[in-house]
Design brief:
The complex is a heterodimer. Chain A has helices at residues 26-38, 49-59, 75-86, 102-110, 123-171, 218-237, 242-256, 334-337, 349-359, 365-376, 424-429, 432-444, 450-469, 482-495, 532-545, 549-556; strands at 18-22, 42-46, 63-67, 93-97, 115-118, 182-187, 195-201, 207-214, 263-270, 276-282, 287-291, 294-299, 319-322, 328-332, 386-392, 416-423, 501-510, 517-525, 559-563, 568-574. Chain A is an alpha+beta fold. Chain A has 3 domains: 18-143, Response regulator (Rossmann fold, 3-Layer(aba) Sandwich), CATH 3.40.50.2300; 172-398, PPM-type phosphatase domain (Phosphatase 2c, domain 1, 4-Layer Sandwich), CATH 3.60.40; 416-574, 2-Layer Sandwich (Heat Shock Protein 90), CATH 3.30.565. In chain A, the strands form 4 sheets. Chain A has a 5-stranded parallel beta sheet with strand order 2-1-3-4-5, with helices on both faces. A 5-stranded antiparallel beta sheet of chain A has the order 6-15-14-11-12. In chain A, helix 12 packs antiparallel against helix 13 (450-469). By secondary structure, chain B is α/β, with parallel strands linked by helices. Chain B has a single domain, classed as Transcription Regulator spoIIAA (2-Layer Sandwich), CATH 3.30.750.24. Chain B contains 3 helices and 7 strands; from the N terminus they run βββαββαβαβ. Chain B has a 5-stranded mixed beta sheet with strand order 1-2-4-6-7, with helices on one face. Chain B has a two-stranded parallel sheet with strand order 3-5. Chain B is globular and about 35 Å long. Classes of the chains: A alpha+beta, B alpha/beta. At the A-B interface, loops of A face helix 2 of B.
């Protein structure tokens, strides 16, 4: 090892590459190492193949110059062994050879050599060949670096996708949709969908369903899905309407998401009897309602998607549609109408309409649509998430509620009271029922009773407002288009309202045992009053066309009493 | 080129023409197309969609970002030469309320 030497002069920056010279001839080694040191490289040398392999292992030189014919182990075998040890790292091996036989030269390459230099040595050629190899080595290393970087990126992306998928599946847990009157189809394009389907039962026994379609897929959609589903479930369970839900989701998305990112959304709200639905469509294809033996009703998008407008520009207005017993509501994401077949044609809204028209009187139009989409898209790559939902207008009280929350604890029964007086302005812009119900929940923690309390409160409040103050005639609602007419009359009367007020008082008294209590709800309005006996009967009829009426309230309360010509009502509810 | 830009001779308007599909793949090109012009201030943008076959929701998102970058005014952006399908997409999303469409 006497001729192993390391150059320390003229060090460029970064440190010079080291070259391993393998030759059994001492003179050759000397000539070569002098020559290569002059070129500015560090030099180490070995006397045969076996030593070369060992030195490669110990010193990891950057380039190897290898003689072919050597004792103990020849150059070919050493090259094979060194390349095996290198694995993924590129270490150029240049064979040094006197051979000019083409086959022998080819053999050098075959055994893992990268180039060869024929004797006698020429300084210029050696320099050029080493430089070329340094260049190849640099290129190789850059590629190897980017490859491992890419692999790292890929596995991080994979992990993020999995996180996104978990978040999305947790949020869009289809368990909430396992309700007997709903059928749905969710076909995500990638692992995670950009479509979201949410369903919740409201405190008054009705139902909210939302179909959302985010810009994009994957992680960004999953991030958007968090505030959307949070807001949806929390407001829905507190008895807020879809107008409020749309307004609040829009606000949260606008505040939290980068601009250009939004959620096309359909929201529907059905009452428990499923006789009317309220609809809000912002940016999704038409909502379609099929009825027996009549053309389907279409509700086109009349709003911008959620997350686009500022709160002060937002339009929360909804459309009301009356439903018959066999009606079905269909909502789709644009992935359905824009689904492509193998010729690149789109499925289109027209095709969906045609399939629905043809199959609406069949037993299962949903599966007809599903089949039609699958048939159309067979043998093609899916470009967007496909979501389809059918909701049958069946009274919800006949359907088990599988999505109930039972997390609030009942608190110790105590004495308390609250009251609220709403003047004309307040009556125009707020519905106090969700807030009061929520207050009762916070003070007394009666989540199991929430639905009943909310129903009593909202029925009595709307009677007081609509019949006591606004003096609306509920018989309007018996006409076919009555509900819409009634709603418009209500809006008009409300906007002209002056000098009126409604006072709501809630008292709570614990029962003597301290288990349970009595809630007294008193609602008094400044209206002129009405004939209690005739109003009572009309309110009972009301049950058929809208809501559940006073009969239901009676059945929920231990006592219900209208006094002062119908301007004051007192209801007792015991828990 | 899927996207070409042309500044009007008087320098007051920039026309961005989109060829083929207007979707997420154009995200960077579209942004680059207007970003350098924005700094010159008070420029009208004309998005020429005559050669555009299809527009997805991310394209709508890109238009929203441009609108925000121009200050959100009503007249700063005009969508021109929309075919029937593009018009339909703009009307379903109600983006026709946000942009001037010719």
């Amino acid at each position: 090892m006497d001729d192993v030497s390391i150059s320390t002069t003229g060090m460029p920056d970064p440190p010079p590459l080291s070259v391993l010279i393998v030759d059994d001839d001492k003179t050759n080694r000397l000539i070569l190492s002098t020559l290569i040191k002059k070129l500015g490289y560090n030099v180490i040398s070995a006397v045969n193949g076996e030593e070369a392999v060992r030195m490669y292992g110990n010193n990891r030189p950057d380039i190897i110059l290898m003689d072919v014919m050597m004792p103990v182990m020849n150059g070919y075998d050493a090259a094979v062994e060194i390349k095996r040890i290198c694995g993924e790292v590129f270490v150029p091996i240049i064979f040094l050879t006197a051979i000019t036989d083409e086959n022998a030269l080819a053999k050098c390459i075959e055994y893992g050599g990268d180039d060869f230099i024929t004797k006698p040595y020429n300084s210029t050629i050696i320099n050029a060949k080493i430089n070329a190899m340094v260049r190849v080595r640099g290129l190789y290393n850059r590629i190897a670096d980017s490859k491992s970087e890419l692999q790292e990126h890929h596995s991080r992306l994979q992990l993020e996708h999995e996180i996104a998928e978990t978040i999305f599946t947790n949020i869009t847990n289809p368990k909430n949709l396992e309700i007997a009157n709903i059928q749905y189809l969710l076909k995500p394009m990638s692992i995670t969908s950009g479509d979201i389907l949410l369903c919740s039962r409201t405190p008054s026994g009705g139902m909210h369903v939302m179909l959302g379609d985010f810009t994009g897929h994957g992680l960004s959609a999953a991030i958007g899905a968090i505030p959307v589903s949070d807001t949806f479930y929390s407001l829905s369970s507190k008895g807020y309407s879809i107008g409020d839900i749309a307004f609040n989701i829009n606000k949260r998305l606008k505040e939290t998401l980068p601009s250009g990112f939004f959620c096309a959304t359909c929201l529907i709200e059905a009452d428990e009897a499923f006789r009317t639905v309220a609809v809000w469509n912002g940016g999704n294809p038409d909502i379609i309602i099929t009825t027996n033996d009549a053309p389907p009703i279409k509700i086109p998008s009349s709003h911008l998607p959620l997350g686009v407008l500022n709160s002060d520009e937002f339009d929360r207005s909804v459309e009301f549609i009356e439903l018959g017993a066999n009606d079905k509501i269909y909502m789709v994401s644009d992935g359905v109408v824009e689904a492509q077949n193998s010729q690149g044609n789109m499925y289109t809204q027209e095709r969906l309409d045609a399939v629905l028209l043809e199959s609406q009187n069949n037993r299962n139009p949903f599966s007809a649509i599903e089949d039609s989409i699958n048939q159309f898209c067979r043998n093609t790559e899916q470009f967007d998430d496909i979501t389809l939902i059918e909701i049958a207008a069946k009274p919800l009280d006949t359907i088990d509620n599988t999505h109930t929350e039972k997390n609030d604890q009942v608190l110790v029964s105590v004495n308390w009271a609250l009251s609220m007086k709403l003047g004309a302005g307040a009556l125009q812009q707020t519905n106090p029922c969700p807030l009061i119900t929520q207050s009762i929940m916070e003070i007394q923690g009666l989540s199991e009773h929430r639905e009943r309390i909310y129903t009593i409160l909202s029925e009595l409040y709307s009677n007081s407002l609509e019949h006591g103050i606004l003096r609306l005639d509920s018989s309007i609602k018996e006409n076919p288009q009555g509900f819409t007419e009634y709603y418009n009359a209500r809006e008009l009367a409300l906007s002209n309202l002056k000098n009126s007020s409604i006072e709501i008082s809630i008292e709570h008294h614990p029962l003597p045992s301290n288990h349970g209590g009595n809630i007294i709800i008193i609602i008094e309005d400044t209206g002129t009053g009405f004939d209690i006996s005739s109003s009572n009967s009309s309110l009972e009829d009301n049950k058929n066309s809208h809501g559940r009426g006073i009969n239901l309230v009676k059945s929920l309360c231990t006592s219900l009493l209208y006094t002062k010509k119908g301007t004051r009502v007192e209801a007792h509810y015991q828990w | 080129m899927a996207l070409t830009t042309q500044l009007s001779r008087d320098g007051t308007s920039l026309t961005i023409s989109i060829n083929g599909r207007f979707d997420f793949n154009l995200y960077k090109d579209f942004r680059d197309a207007y970003e350098s012009t924005l700094s010159k201030g008070n420029i009208k943008f004309i998005i020429n969609l005559s050669q555009t076959e299809y527009m997805d929701s991310s394209a709508l998102g890109m238009l929203l970002v441009l609108k925000e970058r121009t200050g959100g005014g009503e007249t700063a952006i005009t969508l021109k030469n929309c075919n029937k399908e593009i018009k339909n997409i703009l009307s379903i999303s109600n983006f026709d309320k946000l942009f001037t469409i010719e």
